[in-house]
């Protein structure tokens, strides 16, 4: 598995030496390619990446985003018995030689792939995984014995390598955040959001679990991703023993909010359509949930007695949540459309804080001042 073979007739430092990979031979687009398993310790040594100084038109990859590497490396280090990495794809600028275990039958496709050590390996897909592996190995060298799948193609020049990169990423679609939350069993906040969506009387049967957007005809009021971000903001910095206790506190908060927003109950009772509520009111949109979460976080932080935060929510019942309310323009709504960038979330929280008679923090005051100046 990544062993070396030397040839006594070769000269030079690496000439005549070869990497030997156990491999399976395949055909795509009438071109041979090979799939092998490489030890992680070999990845940083043979897959070199130093194209930062090259212009984009003469590179075959995007520039490495170094900010992504620590998180990927931590993912490996923190989950040594549970991480999953997909295959690397590489082009080999050198003569590859495949030796099957037999000359006919299935054995023709199984054998050894021999690659000269002098060959260059170009990563077409997986440069960030490669960098993360290198970083992880410095902290946990024992990972070096583990393996990752590598797909080898013959390097057919810069144009072909650039086309491979384009093709490999052409149809890549990042999964919706909601389904990511649904399937994430490491993130405690994701667990809390799932518990609320599945068990809380406020959210049960009202949360879209897969998509992060709701169609015009959807019967759901909220998305799981919106509930995730809102509840994460609610519990930010609050010390609790476990996810169950956090979920219980979150359920208490959202139940208190629910009592002040009658339209949510009307949807659950099927006296109003979810689509009508979303179309008419703001309170079921992600920005409102997020703002309510941040508002609740402040109340929980400043409360000195259990449940003393509940009466302070009372003024929320008097808020005009209708999207036609001009107070939302420039805050949660821009040009008639709901906008959820950071400043809009802050301005929406500010509006609620003012209704509850709460002071604004420094960042909130600055954003509010900018908003007020823009209205003049």
UniProtKB/TrEMBL annotation:
InterPro entries: DGQHR-contain_dom, DNA_S_mod_DndB
Pfam short name (any one): DndB
Coiled coil: none
Record-annotated membrane-spanning stretches: none
Organism superkingdom: Bacteria
Protein name in UniProt: DNA sulfur modification protein DndB
Organism encoding this protein: Actinomadura darangshiensis
Gene name of the encoded protein: dndB
């Amino acid at each position: 598995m990544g062993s070396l073979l030397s040839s006594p007739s070769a000269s030079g430092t690496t000439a005549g030496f070869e990497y030997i990979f156990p491999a399976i031979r395949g055909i795509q687009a009438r071109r041979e390619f090979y799939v092998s398993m490489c030890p992680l310790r070999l990845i940083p040594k043979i897959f070199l990446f130093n194209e930062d100084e090259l212009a984009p038109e003469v590179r075959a990859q995007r520039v490495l985003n170094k900010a992504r590497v620590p998180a990927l490396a931590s993912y490996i280090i923190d989950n040594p018995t549970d991480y999953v990495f997909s295959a690397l794809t590489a082009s080999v600028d050198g003569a590859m030689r495949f030796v099957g275990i037999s000359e006919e039958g299935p054995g023709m496709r199984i054998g050894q792939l021999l690659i000269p050590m002098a060959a260059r390996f170009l990563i077409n897909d997986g440069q960030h995984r490669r960098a993360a592996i290198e970083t992880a190995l410095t902290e946990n060298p024992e990972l070096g014995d583990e393996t990752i799948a590598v797909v080898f193609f013959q390097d057919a020049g810069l144009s072909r390598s650039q086309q491979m990169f384009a093709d490999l990423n052409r149809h890549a679609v990042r999964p919706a955040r909601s389904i990511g939350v649904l399937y994430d069993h490491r993130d405690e906040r994701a667990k809390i959001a799932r518990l609320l969506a599945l068990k809380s009387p406020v959210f049960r049967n009202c949360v879209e679990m897969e998509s992060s957007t709701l169609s015009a005809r959807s019967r759901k009021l909220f998305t799981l991703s919106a509930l995730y971000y809102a509840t994460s903001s609610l519990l930010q910095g609050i010390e609790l023993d476990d996810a169950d206790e956090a979920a219980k506190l979150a359920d208490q908060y959202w139940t208190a909010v629910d009592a002040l927003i009658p339209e949510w109950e009307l949807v659950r009772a099927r006296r109003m359509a979810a689509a009508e509520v979303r179309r008419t009111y703001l309170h079921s949109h992600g920005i409102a949930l997020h703002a309510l979460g941040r508002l609740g976080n402040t109340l929980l932080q400043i409360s000195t007695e259990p449940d003393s935060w509940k009466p302070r929510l009372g003024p929320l019942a008097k808020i005009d949540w209708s999207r036609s309310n001009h107070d939302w323009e420039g805050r949660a709504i821009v040009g008639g459309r709901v906008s959820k960038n950071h400043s809009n979330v802050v301005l929406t929280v500010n509006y609620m804080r003012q209704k509850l008679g709460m002071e604004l923090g420094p960042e909130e005051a600055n954003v509010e001042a900018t908003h007020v100046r823009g209205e003049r």
